[in-house]
Amino acid sequence: MTEYTPPKVWTNNTENGGTFANVNRPTAGAQHETPLQVGKHPLQLYSLGTPNGQKVTILLEELLALGHKGAEYDAWLIKIYTGEQFGSGFVSANPNSKIPALMDHSVTPPQRVFESGSILIYLAEKFGGAFLPAAPAARTETFNWLMWQMGSAPFLGGGFGHFYTYAPFKIEYAINRYAMEVKRQLDVLDQHLAKNEFMAGKDYTIADMAIFPWYGNLVLGRAYDAAEFLSVHEYKNVIRWAKLLDARPAVKRGLMVNRTGGDLAGQLRERHDASDFETNTQDKMPAV
């Protein structure tokens, strides 16, 4: 591989390769006119079953499990590989063109909510502080770890995940750089969870829901096919915590929503009713 010498001014005039090369560009805004679909429920989620999308569907399923009927939702699949996040309707819900985006039609005018951490806080507060402790110390600790996830996961996904899995060729320096950081982050979690049942202490909160799809799935061997490479077996406290969350029925359902890969029985491409988990998973769909 030849060494790259950056020009004085960068221009987007070369094919950068990689999984998202056909949709990435250095400008924002709508690229095509495509309105958002709207279903029967007040909460309309536009997402994909990636870790950031799963955070929100896990919370919505947990809220429903608690009996919050107002948390019923439609989950529409946004195919980011084909650029659906650049449709005019989606951009109006999230000008940053990243999933997930939520529209709350229970208020007038409808409220848009974007960035997964913001959506978690919005929904927790909307439903009476569910999964968000009222005590100042525990509430602050929940926000501490929620913001830790928001700041740390790009090193796992956009850093390690990209260069280890999605880049058009392997770059030793980049993989080593981000592998070291991911292992440091796992050690942060492991040391903390050695002393705490959940991220904020004794209570299960939105911080757990935010961290689990990224780091829980990683130590359970579900991310980037990198469990052996990263020696995730070393992080026994993270594994204990991840298995605890993974056993929750609402978490299992949340992981299925808007999912497009893996076991067909675990893929619920769109969710419009609780019965969809029994009737509309991909293994029950007619072959195309």
Rg for CA atoms:
19 Å
Class inferred from helices and paired strands: alpha+beta
Strand content: 5-15%
Total count of strands: 4
Protein model, in words:
This protein has about 290 residues and is α+β, with helices and mostly antiparallel strands. It has a domain at about 135-255: Glutathione S-transferase Yfyf (Class Pi), Chain A, domain 2 (Up-down Bundle), CATH 1.20.1050. The chain is about 40% helix and about 5% strand. The protein contains nine helices and four strands. It has a four-stranded mixed beta sheet with strand order 2-1-3-4. Strand 1 (about 45), helix 1 and strand 2 (about 75) form a beta-alpha-beta unit. Helix 1 runs parallel beside helix 3 and helix 1 packs across helix 6. The chain is globular and about 60 Å long. The N and C termini lie far apart (about 40 Å). The mean pLDDT is about 95.
What are the main properties of this structure?
single chain, 288 residues, alpha+beta, Glutathione S-transferase Yfyf (Class Pi), Chain A, domain 2, 4-stranded mixed beta sheet, 9 helices, 42% helix, globular
